[in-house]
Design brief:
The structure holds two protein chains of two kinds. In chain A, about 85% of the residues lie in helices and about 0% in strands. Chain A is flat. Chain A is mostly helical. Chain B has helices at about 45-55, 90-100, 105-115, 130-140, 160-175, 185-195, 215-220, 220-225, 230-245; strands at about 5-15, 20-30, 35-40, 60-65, 75, 145-150, 180-185, 195-200, 205-210. The chains are: A mainly alpha, B alpha/beta. Bound molecules: adenosine-5'-triphosphate (ATP) and magnesium ion (MG).
Chain lengths: ~270, ~250
């Protein structure tokens, strides 16, 4: 047998393998929903609390029909994306300012540690009072959760750039800004991307908690109000929407990651 | 006055618990167009001395004076340190970009001369060690420095590429009539490439002796120099001197 056919065989085997995995994954998903449907149907799990896939689907259809779901979805998604972008951007900017002055960085160090250790969610009521019960509070909540950890991680990436690269720049008499542009930033791209991925999750936490508190609009609000009127169909519907949206957002970040890593040849 | 005068350089590295004396009583001078080499045991302070000459570190004491009011120094570090996120072309033009100089033909010409035009759009990882060293040299030469510092540029290479690159560098420097300082562990390389060889002691590094290389060897390219009849005697002299100072680990 020649190498051509061997290679073909190898590829076919790989394809079969990945198709098999996909099949099992789908099967597992179906099983989960089936289990959920059956257990709630025969009241092994209380359908009042655990709802059921069919009830959720029915609710989805009515809510799509009377257009009372989409505005909430859109609202939450917008808040999350804005919170995510601003949190990461702000974190990067703070990291840059720390990098540009060693003294500032050293002075700020313990404060960053404290801020990072503090559970930001505890600030919720304060944020609500300061920014009012509106979108702004929700976005600030999302930013507050992701910004400190982004700052710390990105700043430490800046600091870990191989000092010999910096030496090369120094030999060319490069300014700080030039050094940052040509060396420090590109060298830190992988770290910045990994914080992007973490921040997707953090922004969702911030937004949902924010909506719990503000309680006027969005999927977080639907969860809270569904809970208050004991409509768990609504709670589950909102949860499923969140899972789907968060996954899509994560996948988008992964696409950006692939693009950037390729662009900077990592 | 010489092109560069190094006078009584002494350098300590300090930390919280102790200090290390890396260099003491270093004095020598280089004339324009001269090629000199430093040989010495590992850790004796050769790289430190280059960094001091390049102005990257301030010596604890001593002065370095230049003939010209300002000289441009090109320093090729012990490893190539090409930027992996930049293409070969971008790596070479980096210095020009930073100095806001027009790249014009310079990069293209250098690549052509280094026989590496085909690599312009590639990334450093796609090149062999020898090619990367040549690119690092091209990056250093692109800004047209008047003094070139080379820190063991060939030490990571196999013997064949090393001989090849020695010839290449030697010819390139002659052609651009550059003043240069080479740090090496290889006595043969020092003899084949330079006009003068300085021998360093163990740490704290100081100059033990200097050897002037005879004209017969100087006028040959490094590869031929290694085969010249005058090569063996001077090799023996330096070798004996090294052994007398208690280090046999130098090849
Ligand atoms: N930044 C530094 N801080 C403290 N000590 C240092 C520093 N740089 C170098 N040294 C010390 O100074 C001495 C000289 O180092 P240097 O790198 O100049 O040696 P070298 O002669 O170039 O050695 P090699 O041949 O192995 O490259 C070494 O003992 C080293 O440990
Ligand atoms: Mg060294």
């Amino acid at each position: 047998m020649d190498t051509e056919t061997l290679h073909e065989q190898f590829k076919r085997k790989r394809r079969l393998e990945s198709r098999k995995i996909l099949l099992f994954q789908l099967l597992l998903l179906v099983l989960i929903f089936l289990f959920w449907q059956i257990t709630t149907h025969y009241r092994i799990l209380d359908p009042l609390i655990f709802s059921s896939p069919l009830a959720v689907a029915k609710l989805l259809v009515t809510k799509v029909m009377d257009a009372t779901l989409f505005p909430h979805v859109w609202f939450t998604l917008m808040e999350t994306v804005i919170g995510f972008l601003l949190g990461t951007l702000l974190g990067t900017l703070i990291a840059i300012s720390l990098w540009s002055s060693i003294t500032v960085a050293k002075v700020m160090d313990p404060y960053l540690v404290v801020l990072n250790a503090m559970p930001k969610v505890a600030l919720g009521p304060m944020i609500l009072v300061i920014f009012g019960p509106n979108v702004l509070s929700v976005i600030v909540m999302a930013i507050s959760i992701s910004v400190i950890v982004s700052t710390i991680v990105i700043f430490s990436a800046f600091q870990q750039v191989n000092e010999n690269y910096l030496k090369v720049m120094q030999l060319f008499n490069a300014s700080k800004a030039q050094t940052f542009k040509h060396v420090v930033l590109p060298a830190s791209i992988p770290t910045i991307i990994s914080t992007l991925k973490v921040n997707v999750g953090l922004s969702w936490v911030g937004v949902i908690v924010g909506e719990f508190l503000v309680s006027s609009k969005g999927l977080g609000y639907l969860i809270i109000s569904g809970f208050q009127i004991f409509n768990f169909n609504l709670v589950f519907l909102s949860l499923i929407m969140i899972v789907i949206l968060a996954t899509i957002m994560y996948k988008c970040v992964e696409m950006i990651e692939r693009f950037l890593l390729k662009k900077f040849n990592f | 006055m010489a092109f560069i005068d190094v006078c009584n350089i002494q350098h300590h590295f300090f930390n919280d618990h102790s200090y290390t004396t890396a260099l003491k009583d270093i004095s020598f001078s280089i004339n324009e167009g001269e090629f000199i080499s430093f040989i010495g045991p590992s850790g004796c302070g050769k790289s430190t001395l280059l960094s001091i000459i390049a102005g990257l570190i301030e010596p604890t004491s001593g002065v370095i004076t230049h003939e010209a009011p300002s000289i441009d120094i090109g320093y090729m570090l012990q490893q190539d340190f090409l930027f992996p996120w930049k293409t070969i072309e971008e790596n070479i033009s980096l210095g020009l970009t930073i100095l806001n100089k027009d790249e014009g033909q310079i990069v293209e010409d250098l690549l052509k001369q280094f026989r590496l035009s085909h690599t312009a759009k590639l990334y450093p990882q796609q090149l062999s060690g020898g090619m990367r060293q040549r690119i690092a040299l091209a990056r250093t030469l692109a800004v047209n420095p008047t003094l070139l510092l080379l820190d063991e540029p060939f030490s990571a290479l196999d013997f064949h590429s090393k001989l090849d690159l020695e010839n290449f560098v030697s010819e390139t420097l002659k052609q651009f009539s550059k003043t240069a300082i080479l740090v090496t562990h290889d006595i043969g390389e020092a003899i084949a490439m330079s006009d003068k060889v300085y021998l360093f002691s163990n740490r704290p590094g100081t100059i033990l002796k200097s050897f002037t290389i005879p004209d017969e060897i100087r006028n040959l390219v490094p590869f031929d120099a290694r085969n010249a009849p005058e090569y063996q005697p001077i090799f023996q002299t330096i070798w004996k001197e090294l052994e007398a100072n208690g280090y046999g680990n130098v090849t």
